[in-house]
């Protein structure tokens, strides 16, 4: 009953849960922010909330999606891709902020507060998802050397039957 597909889906279940929880958190913050800022600042507040949710949500969701997309490559490759994508996300976020900086169709406090709320809620949601998801990290397999453990333990002793220093047992004094 332990086939590779089941193990693969179980192994990456935390990432999928993080994507799911993060998307739900993003949707919740977006709706609340749209309502609050629509009432507080009108149409500019709605635009500020939409742009803030898009920038903050894209920034956080992109990371977890990239982690899931690179789940089957070497860890160093995943790390390089994550670092490169982080740099690209920073450049894009700065570019968006520079472009909308001089525009007046949105409410600036709505934009900033929504970005911060999205970042906090999504990080908390993704962290909760990963912490609550049960996944097998190591699949123990019986090894051929299990029968030889007694022989290796005996080989670590000196001629007089006491264990040598550094062999994991008590040292001679």
Unreliable stretches, pLDDT < 50, 5 or more residues? Answer: 1-7, 153-157
Helix content: over 70%
Mean pLDDT: 81
Overall strand count: 0
N→C terminal distance: 53 Å
Helix-strand makeup class: mainly alpha
How many distinct helices? 6
Radius of gyration: 26 Å
Task: Give the SSE order as H and E letters.
Answer: HHHHHH
% residues in beta strands: under 5%
Description of the structure:
The chain is mostly helical and 173 residues long. The protein is built from six helices and no strands. The longest helix is centred in the first third of the chain and has 29 residues, at 13-41. It is elongated and about 70 Å long. The relative contact order is 0.16. Residues 1-7 and 153-157 have low confidence and may be disordered.
Task: Please give a quick description of this structure.
With 173 residues, the protein is mostly helical. The protein has helices at 4-11, 13-41, 43-69, 75-101, 108-132, 149-155.
Blueprint (SSEs and pairs):
Layout: H1 4-11, H2 13-41, H3 43-69, H4 75-101, H5 108-132, H6 149-155
Helix pairs in contact: 2-3, 2-5, 3-4, 3-5
Write a concise keyword list for the protein shown above.
single chain; 173 residues; mainly alpha; 71% helix; elongated; disordered N terminus
